[in-house]
Amino acid sequence: MDDFTHATEAYLSWLRASGITISPKIHLADLRSRNASRGVVALSNIAPDEELFRIPRSIILTPSSLPSLPADADPWTGLILSLIAAHNAGPASPWAPYLAVLPPLEAFNTLLFWTEGELAELQASPVLGRIGAAEAREMIAERVVPVIEAEPARYGYAASPGRDEIFATANRFASIIMAYAFDIERDPAERQPDEEGYVTEDEDAELPKGMVPLADALNADGERNNARLFYEPDALVMKAIKPIPAGEECLNDYGELPRAEVLRRYGFVSPTYAAWDVAEVEQSLIDSVLRAGGIDIPFYTFAAERNALINDLEILDDAYEITRLTPDVHGLSIFDHALRHQILLRVLEPLPNPPPKPSHTAKDTYRYPRAWFAVLEQVIEAKLRQYGTTLFEDREILASLERAGEGAGRRGMAVQVRMAEKEVLHGALQALALGRREAAEVDIGGEKRRREEGEEGGRKVRRER
Ligand SMILES: C[S@@+](CC[C@H](N)C(=O)[O-])C[C@H]1O[C@@H](n2cnc3c(N)ncnc32)[C@H](O)[C@@H]1O
């Protein structure tokens, strides 16, 4: 028996001894051949609503598992400190067999652990701006290190540990929390009624984070989610939400995330998340395209009046999302409405009074003049150029990585993420081409359409020049 299997066996004995009820229809499988470490697999057919396992709340590792944490510890810091204390307690920790199956630092593929060279393979992906390495360091430096240095013994250190050691351990547990922890819904019985006898939930209060053994052994898939964790007063219960045939993996829902986000948080990439892929265009890119000229945009684009109006509307942001063009969405609604609207306000001639309101539906294509399409097309093309390779080249690169058995490696994952974003951008160009055609048709038939629809508040439809 190798160490991995040995740890799994010890973990299973510990789970049972801790009062977790596990259905005989599942087992904890070795999925190393699929780069997924462990996962839960059905041994026989499971019906919807059947319980896979039931976890008593007492076995969840939360910040309150560690007595006398700093009172102001937020859910992340609290859980990092608790995990460090449990880890340092070694075999004496009540969670030792559980901690033994959590990944070591070197097993992480989340972006925090990629080298600069590996990150460069993500090219112009906006996910690079969200890795948060500096923020993580700052958080550990400000909220974890001083607490441990003040009382090393409480966190299981014999002597004051070096800062590097604290950083490495805290980084590992922060990454584990990101990929494994749950937001623990409170036991309704613990909620206190207010003076008037009402029990209300503070919507803004952060839910406590906790490590839920076995529930966090479920892997995820964007299309085949078949299990969900239910919060009961005394226990957390994992149930099937669909039939799970024998031999199939029980899969949790990690959320509707683009592939870039799945990679950032969980360290893997799967095409089953393609429906939620997004691309982003930065405000700085839009500004540089507008200022570069070469587009048939009116001279007043940056007139003080326009700038003032756009600022007043408070629609500007650092970047705007574009979602995937699919047959179910109206073409132009793939563009964030603030993106559509600010460009409209820049290119409308003359600026109507009152100015048009941001439209969330994007169905009124005929309001977009030709310059609007031209600007957006240039922005998307400029974004595509930032990536360095084309979608076509990426397909070749990925195919050759797959032939070499390296498709699931870091480079392969980076290529899949950047391809996903390029696909979204190409979809955007397609949506613009279709929208432009539709707008031209509406323009040509504009008089007729206006008569049919009523005067639309006297709004002018611009003709194609
Ligand atoms: C909550 S844990 C699931 C249990 C994990 N496989 C284990 O053995 O500890 C989340 C981690 O599982 C892995 N994972 C989850 N779903 C996956 C998938 N579809 N493909 C590959 N790895 C996956 C990733 O490493 C992710 O960070």
From TrEMBL:
The keyword Hydrolase does not apply. One of its GO terms (cellular component) is nucleus. It comes from Trichodelitschia bisporula. InterPro entries: Rubisco_LSMT_subst-bd, Rubisco_LSMT_subst-bd_sf, SET_dom, SET_dom_sf, SETD3_SETD6_MTase. Residues 24-255 form the SET domain. GO terms for molecular function: protein-lysine N-methyltransferase activity. This is SET domain-containing protein. Residues 443-465 are annotated as: Disordered. Pfam families: Rubis-subs-bind, SET.
